[in-house]
Amino acid sequence: VLRNPFRRIPVYADMSVSSDDYSAARAHPLDNPLNTGLYYVKATSRGVRVLKYWRAARARFPGAHDQSVFHNIKRELVQKLGVAIEPLDTVYFGGFCEYHDDLASACTMHADCCVGVDNKVHDLKDVAADWERYKGMAPEERKRVGRNMTWTVPARCRRSVNWSKPVHP
């Protein structure tokens, strides 16, 4: 978490979930590849039902990772529970699959598209160093040169999954 993310979480959604490849142009929000490595659930009775339903669904998908279970039930959550699920825009909620070189807007950076804890830690240390360099600038300097800063490419993570650039619809 780089800065307060709550200003960028949609207030109308019961659940907001990070995306590996976000595009507002997709026909339905659930068509975005959602990644439950980062999610926010409103503290309401409907939010509690989401988490209980998700947990109970694990029995239907033995051995599946929680993200795979969520992928299999996300449309059920909408249809059966009436839940509003919204992907988080990667401009603000970036990840190694897709991020934007706009440090002035970034709220979080997620080590998705990465296999291996050592790879994640290495590349997240680069993110932390980039962020410290950005935050260490005087406000005037940030306005002048900060927009031209870029994140260090998460090379170890991208190599670990043979990453290629997403193509948006």
Automatic annotation (TrEMBL):
<dbReference type="InterPro" id="IPR044821">
    <property type="entry name" value="At1g28695/At4g15970-like"/>
</dbReference>
<dbReference type="InterPro" id="IPR005069">
    <property type="entry name" value="Nucl-diP-sugar_transferase"/>
</dbReference>
<dbReference type="Pfam" id="PF03407">
    <property type="entry name" value="Nucleotid_trans"/>
</dbReference>
<protein>
    <recommendedName>
        <fullName>Nucleotide-diphospho-sugar transferase domain-containing protein</fullName>
    </recommendedName>
</protein>
<feature type="domain" description="Nucleotide-diphospho-sugar transferase">
    <location>
        <begin position="2"/>
        <end position="124"/>
    </location>
</feature>
